[in-house]
Amino acid sequence: MTERGYTSWGRFPQINQLGRSFAWRSDELPVTSEDTDSLLPYGNGRSYGDVCLNRGGIVLSTRGLNRFINFDPEAGILRCEAGVLLAEILQLIVPAGWFLAVSPGTRYATVGGALANDVHGKNHHQAGAFGCHVIAFELLRSDGSRNLCSREENKELFGATIGGLGLTGLITWVELQLRPVNGSMLKEETLKFANVDEFFHLSEASDQDFEYTVAWVDCASKGDSLGRGLFARANHVPSETVQAKVDLEPRISVPFQLPCSLINGFTLKMFNAWWYRRQRERRKTRKVHFQPFFYPLDSIGNWNLMYGPKGLLQYQCVLPGEDGREVLRQMLAIIAQSGNGSFLAVLKIFGERLSPGLLSFPRPGVTLALDFPNSPDVFRLLDRLDDMTREVGGAVYPAKDARMSADSFHSYFPAYEKFSEYVDPDFSSSFWRRVSGDEL
Amino acid sequence: MSDVLIIGASSAIAQSVARIYAQEGGRLFLVARDAARLDAIADDLRVRGALQVDTLAADLLEHDRHPEIIEAALDAMPELDIALIAHGVLPNQEACQISVESSLESMDANFISVVSLLTPLANRLEARGGGTIAVISSVAGDRGRQSNYVYGAAKSGLDAFLQGLRNRLSKVGVNVLTIKPGFVATPMTAHIEGRGGLLWASPETIAEGIAKAIDKEKDVAYLPGFWSLIMLIIRNIPERIFKKLSL
């Protein structure tokens, strides 16, 4: 885990900022100056766009804040510093019979980053978002105050900081409630679906009995096979031996940035068609270790370098209600038509459980996530998808965004005005200046 | 499972080494200047599986306290297996050229204070026999370069001291390990431009190398290993050519 400068995972935008290490929770925050007038915590750089970037300011690297503080193996409560990676947590807790209550699609995010982006996982329909399982944390603000935040204490700061994109201060430590498991294995069923309706049908039939559900969708197919894909559903199952080994670094990596993107209209179509046909059976069942199940992309280190020097743009929206389903169909058609799109487009139904986070992204509805190689066309396409999302009262995920407009943000997150009261006066980010209208 | 004394325990490399022995269920005695930092490290090591963690806050530039530190560690762990000396500073070369005081301070932190600690430690282990003394030096000690020769000179002096100590203690089965890391991405090097390139290693990688070198009772360990080749070349460039280079 050598540091490669402070970029976001999408490697767009590339900006100048000053990196400083913040490695001790007993330390004070650095003072800002006229030249570098704002601070922003930076975890492991796994958010895609510019929520972890601070053009012209200071980013405080928290990877040195990677110490455990307390682990209660009876109650499944873990307290650790904010820069600890989820992978490091899993290495500790799985042998003790516990698992993360909510895990995103990468284990290389820090716990502080997971909290600040209020990440979600394949069990959102049952467990809600990451913030639902945060018991408490400490927030260090630029006035020097150390605020213990929980559902009882400093409730407002608690809600503003969960999903607060690092803007309310620096999270020094986090206390999490874990969920019990008996071993490291899951039983996974993969079912083919031929179109969007079948996806919705499968989701409804599965969300009660399966803790984890997610679908891969072929975003290059059109016409009758629009929205075909593979639906995965799984539960933890007891295993006699615990394969607790968690890879703290990927076994293979893309060694350097490729000169141009490997992802183009042709490879996209080929891959998507092959991936769909690869599974011959309509239903396949396997026992699988949690690592490939939760973190398939983590097995290839620096996979983002495949997108070439211009980087990639991620897009994830949530579309509520019946209208959302129709809008999803339209979006898939537009994306397929555009010839842009990704190897891994993902569909999932979010549940009703709301996070305490003021700016939390997940809300009831269907969510679509996919990535695009950076190009001017893609910006136009995403603006169009934004219009559609706004019309249906949905939202776009800030953790994956590098370009949404201030208007869109305000429409997606009506609590933003209340949130802005809790933003630390010395903290800011490239994302925040854009969506709060401070930077044109 | 080992009993390990770590002096300069709050350095990034030292913390990573401590974690390796904590995970094996070892006992640790940690010395560093800042008590709050020591507490944070001790909590972490306990969660990771350490059987026992003791801490002692001390400014290592106060040489008078060194015998007391060594006594306290050996009282807590009479069966001490490993002593790692990891403290040091990377001085600003230009500041050292202007100020004698800066140069001497850096000499103290990187060399004199280490000698002052090693003397009582070596005597105790010599009397007892067995164990490993591991000291973090640097590839910078292999040849003086214009960009950091004050640091390099301290490490070079340290290398010679350790060679002699190794020679002496090998008779009683005490292994002396000189650790020579190359570029390591730590807070000590956070300001260096070009950090993060191919030659840079993480503290975790260096720590694994240290634990392995201790295990194998090596004398000198370049970490990562390719630095032995790089330094072999650098050491062998004739001085009349070397002096003209901008290294």
**Secondary structure: number of strands of chain A:** 20
Going by helix content, strand content and strand pairing, the class of chain A is alpha+beta
| CATH topology group of the domain at 185-403 in chain A | Alpha-Beta Plaits
CATH level 1 name of the domain at 185-403 in chain A: Alpha Beta
Give the C-alpha Rg of chain A: 21 Å
Q: Radius of gyration of chain B from the CA trace?
A: 18 Å
Q: Report on the biggest sheet of chain A.
A: 8 strands, antiparallel
Going across the major beta sheet of chain A, what is the strand order? 15-11-13-12-18-19-17-20
Q: What do the pLDDT scores of chain B average to?
A: 95
How many alpha or pi helices of chain A? 12
Percent of residues in helices of chain B comes to 40-55%
Shape assignment of chain B? globular
State the CATH architecture of the domain at 185-403 in chain A.
Answer: 2-Layer Sandwich
| Helix segment tally of chain B | 9
Q: Which structural class matches the secondary elements of chain B?
A: alpha/beta
CATH architecture of chain B: 3-Layer(aba) Sandwich
The count of DSSP E runs of length 2 or more, i.e. the number of strands of chain B, is 9
Low-confidence stretches of chain B: none
What form of chain A results from the Cα inertia axes? Answer: globular
User: Order of strands side by side in the largest beta sheet of chain B?
Assistant: 3-2-1-4-5-6-9
